[in-house]
Amino acid sequence: MASLFDAAGFGKDAPRPLADRLRPQKLADVVGQDHLVGPDGVITRMLAAGRIPSIILWGPPGTGKTTIARLLAGETGLAFEQISAIFSGVADLKKVFEQARIRREQGRGTLLFVDEIHRFNKSQQDSFLPYVEDGTIILVGATTENPSFELNGALLSRAQVLVLNRLDNEAMQALIRRAEMFERRPLPAEPAAREAMTGMADGDGRYFLNMLEEVFAAVPEGGTPLSTELLARTVQKRLPLYDKAADGHYNLVSALHKSVRGSDPDAALYYLARMLVAGEDPLFIIRRVVRMAIEDVGLADPEAVHQALAAKDTYDFLGSPEGELAIAQAVVYVATAPKSNAVYTAYRAATERAKQTGSLTPPKIILNAPTKLMKQQEYGTGYRYDHDQPDAFSGQNYFPDGMGRETYYDPVERGFEREVKRRLEYWAKLRKERGA
Questions:
Q1: Nearest partner of 205 among 36, 66, 19, judged by Cα
Q2: Strand pairing category for 55-58 and 137-143
């Protein structure tokens, strides 16, 4: 008699998901990662050399990290142990290490695959070190986060970081062909729907195969292929991969900033849209745009910062989604504005000089003398009021005595700073003529 478990489709003979049934049987079958498992791939060369170090596999979800680890163990004859940092604790680690020690005494090595390894804390990560060093285990860790930030330096120094790519269109087409061979019929979807599915998968092969399985199940053999419209009703679209505290967040922020700095409004709008679609806080984006207007445009176009601040006020007034157009306008304005980091560079240079010179006193001629003693000390003596001088310019030295005049700000020949540069050159000429 069938149990409720069997009736629900979870019995031992229940069909496995397509993603599991199509899991590659050898490393060369892994798609989209030729730089690792192709003929000249890093892992291929490791196997040829007969030496497998501990490895950190860093890449987006659904790119083959678990599969590569499992196949690597199979091709080297190592025992495969798998744990997840989400569900495992110190007791689980001790048990795995002890089993690996026993295997080693019996002449067999262990490949320990740790999924989401970045979720282990520092002490848990440190517990791997002695077993990695003495060869009790070959550690293969998988992470979607930047190992430089999430893993201990000691652990990183004992492992080689290998980066997996999100699956491109060619890799997705290879998965379609495999699924079609397994199902023994073409994918029942129109060309436009196929293209839409690739975009919806967002580089995640596992998600893509699950989506293919849904489409095969939705259309019986000989049925009408799904259009893009029917596809949207059949499969559940997910939001793009984006975690406000993880790499996806910082990568898009960096891409937006560099697109603006590079005067590419189209790329800047694309990354802005990516962030907003993924649920980024619009005020966070506006703060970054204000920073761009100051750092990368500056006085080449003083209006840029006003546009950025106006976008903030407009968004506060209108909210979403209407206020997001103001952000787009500010992004386009700053991206198309003439660029200069002259003020940014000058401020950094002046800050460094201030640290070096300490507490040098300004020259007495520009110090106020509110007391009799200060007047006796000649504070303010010799100061020439600029508005009373020809051209409203005295040309006096305002740097501390003994320091000499220095130049930090060097405006560029672009935008409004071209005019500023002419002013500075004119004042330098007057300073020289007046012997200041």
A1: 19
A2: parallel
